[in-house]
Specification:
This protein is mostly helical and 297 residues long. The chain starts with a helix and ends with a helix. The chain has a two-stranded antiparallel sheet.
Length: 297
């Protein structure tokens, strides 16, 4: 077994990744509660936004413009998809809605493979200014990008929970999660509420893509499928609880990175979100069965 010192750097990186997974998971939960859509294209949207930002920066466009374009791209694609296809899918089964977003994922992935082919071995990276500054935690060096990753997850979780609870738009989103038809008959502008949910999810996709391109790697495949970790956190929370989504995301990020120094388990660390989600769903299902059996008794 590795020593405690070997694990310390991975605690820092795991918390940073967990924070980004948390803000992504919160975006997925809010969108699902407002529209009933599990947005599987979240990772692909962020990945393509990151690649666009990288291309602009390498064309000597100011860095901050590239970052803004990344976030704007995520927002534009997500809102465009939601407004064009959202109404047609509104009354379809959740599985159909999810598969439709998987179609968007494949389209974006194909475009990335066409426009940013990696056959030439070209290395890509987005480096934020916060990478060059940091501080020591014991004997571990932490940079400010990692702090931003964790801080963004905490801030988005708190802000979203307050937004859903204390604002009219947030109340409308919670009402739509319970019953879309009744909410519409009460005079709630359903299309406007849905547009706000799609916009918020798209902005978070762009932010997550930018941070993950720095913290992990600017690779289309890697970033596209990192949505699995965020989705696992949302599923553990049963696509309902913002706070539980945050806790699950932090756990996934930590466990994933803490498995890295253990040689026997390193190759299996990518299974972390699947295993945790499966265990959580089995436990929750068991509790539901026990509760129902007690009610019948």
């Amino acid at each position: 077994m590795p020593s405690w010192q070997d694990f310390q750097p991975f605690i820092v990186s795991g918390l940073a990744l967990g924070g980004v997974y948390a803000l992504s998971g919160v975006g997925l939960v809010v969108l699902y509660r407002a529209t009933g859509v599990v947005y599987l294209a979240f990772g692909a949207v962020g990945a393509m936004g990151g690649l666009i930002a990288w291309s602009l920066i390498n064309a000597h466009v100011p860095d901050w413009i590239g970052w803004l374009v990344c976030v704007a791209f995520g927002a534009a694609v997500t809102v465009g998809y939601g407004m064009v296809l959202g109404p047609a899918l509104a009354k379809r089964d959740p599985l159909v809605k999810a598969v439709a977003t998987l179609g968007l994922t494949l389209v974006l992935f194909g475009l990335m493979d066409l426009l940013w082919t990696s056959s030439g071995g070209e290395s890509r990276a987005i480096t934020l200014p916060t990478d060059n500054h940091g501080f020591m935690i014991g004997q571990v060096q932490a940079n400010w990008t990692q702090v931003i990753g964790l801080g963004a997850g905490i801030a988005i979780t708190v802000a979203t929970a307050a937004f859903l609870r204390y604002t009219k738009l947030g109340t409308a989103m919670r009402a739509m999660a319970n019953d879309r038809e009744i909410t519409a008959t009460l005079g709630v502008p359903v299309r406007r509420v849905e547009a706000a949910a799609w916009l918020g999810c798209g902005v978070l996709a762009g932010v997550a893509g930018l941070l993950l391109a720095d913290l992990v790697a600017l690779d289309a495949t890697t970033l596209t499928f990192l949505v699995i970790s965020s989705l696992a956190a949302a599923l553990i929370a049963r696509l309902r609880s913002i706070v539980l989504t945050f806790v699950a995301a932090i756990a996934i990020g930590l466990i994933h990175d803490l498995l890295t120094p253990i040689q026997a388990l390193t190759n299996y660390r990518d299974m972390t979100p699947f295993v945790l989600a499966a265990v959580a769903l089995l436990v929750l299902s068991r509790r539901s069965v026990i509760s129902l059996s007690r009610e019948d008794a």
